[in-house]
Amino acid sequence: LDAGGGAPAAEGGAAERAVLVSFDVAGQEFALPIAHVERIVPVPDSVARMPKARAHLLGVAAIRDALLPLLGLRALFGLEGAAPSHPRVVVAAVEGERVGLVVDAVRGILRVDPAAIGPVPSILAREAEFDDLSGILHLDGGRRLVSVLSAERLLTHTAALGAAFAGRGDSAMTAETTAKTTTTDATAEPFVVFRLGGAEYGLPVGSVREVLRRPDDLTPLPKTPEFVAGLVNLRGAALPAVELRRVLRLGDDAAQRPRIVVVGLRGARVGLIVDAVSGVVRVPAGAIAPAPAVSQAQRQLIARVAHLDSGGRTRMILLLETDALFDLDQLAALLEAA
User: Is 224 helix (H, G, I), strand (E, B) or coil?
Assistant: First the structure.
């Protein structure tokens, strides 16, 4: 969500920002570099547990035809609180090794100045419970602290668990299949996936700046297109918020959409109001196909469709072209408002 690190960087400096995926664990915020996040999925219904394993080693589950060790961050860090209603698994990957981190909820993407990530204080770094952190992110002038995790260190916790299951012959993948999957993942494209009107849409990670909670009230903006819902105060700057449902001509409803996906557009930032954000999904190249050409305008906006296997069902994600979201007149009006 809101990176809160002061004034946003210019579009040209986006490559210099550190990009993290943030999530909640028992009321505390953690993050992982997006380069180590392979995908985010619901917690599987079936988890195979090992007897006498430590509490944070939850077991092994089948995710996308591969057995994945699950690591419970609540138990690992000794955090308590009400059980989450919709926990998620953040799949972390380092050089082909993978671990599933069970978290309470995924917040979104943080794009921050790398200088805002400081080291773990030396007096804490000596303690074993801080070994899993690679740094502390300081936001909002230090009022918001985010613990940045080390994917390499987290993998060491589950090495014994993975070996135990491999010894039992429970692996669902042959060496040939594993090699094929690794090659496919290396060419996968990351998308920020969100829901709108009963369908899932994806935007390239590179075009998404952050994800915000929608404020209770938007400041109305006179003499703007009907799809502009109003302005949001984003760290002292006015952000035009757009009803994406209207842009996509999906019709209106009475629902109060709770999330805003902030995208970079021709040197400005625009907030897209959506129903929910699923997280970051890395889509293998082989799972992407051309979209049916219903119309020229639709083909420009949605040129590709991702088809993913999700628990025996096909999950379809419509992949949006950011630059084609608005026509020239709409874009001019938005840039003027921004």
Answer: coil
Cα–Cα distance, 69 to 156 (Å, whole number): 11
Which residues in the chain show pLDDT less than 50? 1-14, 160, 162-184
pTM for the structure as a whole: 0.54
Write the DSSP symbol of residue 327: -
The secondary structure of 229-295, three-state, reads EEEEEECCEEEEEEEHHHHCCCCCCCCCCCEEEEEEECCEEEEEEECEEEEEEEECHHHEEECCCCC
Three-class secondary structure of residue 76 per DSSP: helix
Strand order in the sheet with 259-265: 208-213, 259-265, 268-274, 237-243, 228-234
Q: Do the beta carbons of residue 109 and residue 192 sit within 8 Å?
A: yes
Return the structure tokens found at 281: 């999904």
Place of tokens 């419509």: 318
Q: Name the maximum alpha-carbon separation found in the chain.
A: 68
Evaluate whether 141 touches 53 at the Cβ level (below 8 Å). Answer: no
Q: How far is Cα 137 from Cα 183, in angstroms, rounded to an integer?
A: 33
Q: What's the burial of 142, exposed, middle or buried (CB within 10 Å: 0-12/13-18/19+)?
A: exposed
CB-CB contact of 213 with 258 (8 Å): yes
pLDDT in tens, 200-218: 999 988 888 888 888 888 8
